[in-house]
Amino acid sequence: MSGSREIARSRVALPAEPGAPRQRWLRSALPLLVLLTTLAVFSPALRNEFVNWDDDRNLLKNEHFRGLGGPQLRWMFTAYWVGHYHPLTWLSFAVDYEIWGLDARGALGFHLTNVILHALNAVLLYWLAARLLALTNPAASARHPTAVRLAAALAALLFSVHPLRAESVAWVTERRDVLSVFFLLACLLAYLRFARAERARWRWYALALALLLLSLLCKAWGMTLPAVLLVLDWYPLRRFRARGRIRVLAEKIPFVALAAWTGLEALRAQSSALDTMKTLAQYGWLPRIAQAFYGIVFYLWKTLWPTGLIPIYEVPLKLNPFEARFVASAVVVLAITGLVVALRRRWPAGLALWAYYGIVVSPVLGLTQAGPQLVADRYSYLSCMTWAVLAGAGLLYVIDRHSLGRSYNRSVPLAAACAGVILVLAGLTWRQTQVWRSSETLWGYTLAVAPDSYNARTNMGAALQQRGDYEGAARCYRDALAINPDGPDALSCLAGFLTDSGRPEEALPYLQRGLKSSPQHGALLTNLAITLQHLKQYEAAAAIYRQRLASDPSAVQEASLCTGLGATLMELGRDSEGVEYLRRAVALAPRDVLFHYNLAQALRRTGDLDGALQGFEAAIRLARAEIGTSSSTPAAARCVDAVLGAVQVHAARGDWTKARACLREALATSPNNPRLLAAWQRVQQPAGTAPAP
User: Fold this and answer.
1) Is 544 exposed, middle or buried (0-12, 13-18, 19+ CB in 10 A)?
2) Which residue of 43, 310, 388, 538 pairs with 158 in a disulfide if CB–CB is 3.0 to 4.6 A?
3) Which comes out higher in pLDDT, residue 198 or 222?
């Protein structure tokens, strides 16, 4: 008989609503309210651009995902890119690309998808919270059925409009967060149906398993789900007593298999990023444990007090695990753990919520440290749903304890308080979303909050260099090195700037310094090869290019490595081999102006004037398209280079009419460009005597 009672309890559903129109209206209106509020709060993201915080590496400089053909799909399901394996996320990006492109309009489209997915997640959380609240407090749910839905709506809104969500939603690269959680929440809903259903139970089980797979193909953090399901089975489902431990554990075997496979793929992906994973020799166990305690408290504290949120909280150069903030965090975690364990019989929900939070956040606590972050706002996206559901449960408890549903005078202050909290959070999130407007706004804000941020100064320098402020960029790089003298990214960027400025001999010591501490750093090695090219050390440069291509064939800069190697081989007199690498670069990145230009120059040198003209004309078209969408100064300079290259080919053929027509078209859009004007003067000389421009 006790088993029967437990089964009945495990199948508690949402209380049957009376048939009054008000109840039916509320059932539809609340999830719609959650959806529309979330969309409105995150609408500023639709004006945001792509930023140079992985959006460039993942999207703007990545040709592989652009399309839905066989080669693109094969790449999506096999690539370990920038330390991640998430084929369905790539697929969603490909669909966005097919619809929107990658110009300013494309940025709007990519952001729109993120915002819509987040709003849908809020609705799914509303449904999930409503079911969990009905399961954990069936008596209150029976007495106040409307309160369950109001509490679920509060939980969904506290989650969705919280400023900690801004990073996952307003940053295009974090599509993997919102997409994976969409499938994961649906998986949990399906599992609850499986656990409580009397008929067609295994259909819901199969659906839950399929949805987990889809989530894992978007991001790996769903690999903790088997442990989460066991927590749910313990409380509030109480299935261990109703179904038997062996049966409940056996049900998890397929989930565990999927999680193990995903964990292995995630490890392979992180290992493929040669310059991100930290070894135990570099970062020992004590610092990792201290970081883990700090992360657990950080996300809880920022949920309660969400100010000073920035995109990068950097790991200290020398992390002292006995620093006050780390010791205090350990004390807080142990104290909360002891409290919820002691209260597990009177308040099992407390232990279940704390266990869920710890399980879900565990993969991102730094125990397997990758990257420069100590903690990250985006890591709270899934784990901090705990606290939103807890707030909803608190509202249900207050309404039930004080019978507020029957007293208008007493319910108004509570409703006003809830609305006030949501409005404050929404305002903070509205502002935080706009921080991600552009690379310069992102890093300018970060430096205002954390002026000693090495990564922010380095990335601000890259943003300034992108828009042509080279002196400002150099200052940022030097400021970054004042914070971290051996910082590989800043050393690489500063060396690249010096080489581009015609000072490769000054760049070389910075590169050598960086490679002493980070010998596998890809950007340092690539910039070293470029600098050696400028110093005419072509054999050494070619060796580095070959080493980079061999050690990391799926490198983000594979096309750049190929064009660099091709140009170096041309300088060594190996023209045919050089042209093949330059062709490979164009095939890898067919929309890159520079690669078309380099191939065209090589073909002109080998006497293939038809191929050279095609290459220059392709470069002109791409550069003009880039100028039309971004007003890019580098794109304008590349366009002029390509125009002059095409004029040279026409001149070599003696076709001065086409040379003049090419220049006339270019001068129509750049009438004051001195290089174009000088070339125009030269091609005005009588046919047969005009020198090549």
Assistant:
1) buried
2) 388
3) 222
Beta strands in 284-350 (DSSP E): 313-314
Is it the case that residue 359 has pLDDT exceeding 50?
A: yes
Which helix (H) or strand (E) element contains residue 589? none
pLDDT over 50 (residue 43): yes
In which element (H, E) is residue 454 found? helix 454-466
- The pLDDT tens digits for 595-604 are 999 999 999 9
Residues 529 and 564 sit within 8 Å (Cβ to Cβ) = yes
Question: Quick check: 14 and 141 in contact, CB under 8 A?
Answer: yes
Amino acid at 242: A
Distance of alpha carbon 15 from alpha carbon 446, whole angstroms: 48
Q: How confident is the model at residue 241 (pLDDT cuts 50, 70, 90)?
A: confident
Residue type, 196: R
- Determine the 3-state secondary structure of 141 from DSSP: helix
Domain spans in the chain, listed from the N-terminal domain onward: 2-9+23-435, 607-693
The pLDDT value given to residue 18 = 46
Q: What are phi and psi of 374, to 5 degrees?
A: -80, -45
> Which of 222, 205, 202 lies closest to 214, judged by CA?
222
- CA 192, distance to chain mean position in Å, is 30
pLDDT of residue 22: 58
Tell whether the model's pLDDT for residue 30 goes beyond 80.
yes
Chain center to CA of 637: 31
The percent of residues above 90 in pLDDT, for the chain, comes to: 68
* Structure-token pair, residue 301: 């504290």
**Listed range (86-100, 180-194, 388-402) with the worst mean pLDDT:** 388-402
Report whether pLDDT(630) > 60.
no
Residue 12: per-residue pLDDT: 44
Helices 470-483, 454-466: crossing angle, 10 deg rounding:
170
Mean pLDDT of 484-494: 94
Nearest to 235 by CA among 401, 411, 76, 6: 6
pLDDT per residue as tens digits for the range 319-329: 999 999 999 99
The sign one gets for the Cα dihedral 542, 545, 548, 554 is: negative
* Side-chain-side CA neighbours of residue 251 (13 Å): 22
CA quadruple 639, 642, 646, 652: dihedral sign: positive
CA angle, corner 82, sides to 289 and 101, nearest 5? 135
Q: Which residue stretches of 552-607 are H helix? A: 558-571, 575-588, 593-606
| CA-only gyration radius of the chain, Å | 29
Rounded CA separation 624/646 (Å): 15
d(CA 178, CA 215): 10
Task: Report which secondary-structure segment, H or E, holds 375.
Answer: strand 373-375
d(C-alpha 275, C-alpha 646), whole Å: 40
Element (H, E) at 373: strand 373-375
User: Cα separation of 556 and 535, whole Å?
Assistant: 25
Distance CA 119, CA 41 (A): 10
Amino acid found at 449 = V
- Residue 273, pLDDT above cutoff 60: yes
CA dihedral 501, 502, 508, 509 (to 10 degrees): -60
Tell me the C-alpha to C-alpha distance, in Å, between residue 654 and each of 135, 211, 513, 658, 683: 85, 65, 51, 9, 11
Backbone angles phi, psi at 277, to 5 degrees: -70, 140
Enter the pTM of the model.
0.88
Return mean pLDDT, the chain.
89
- The type of residue at 268 is R
User: What Cα–Cα distance (Å) separates residue 307 from each residue in 158, 315, 332, 450?
Assistant: 16, 19, 20, 13
Token pair 């659906």: residue: 207
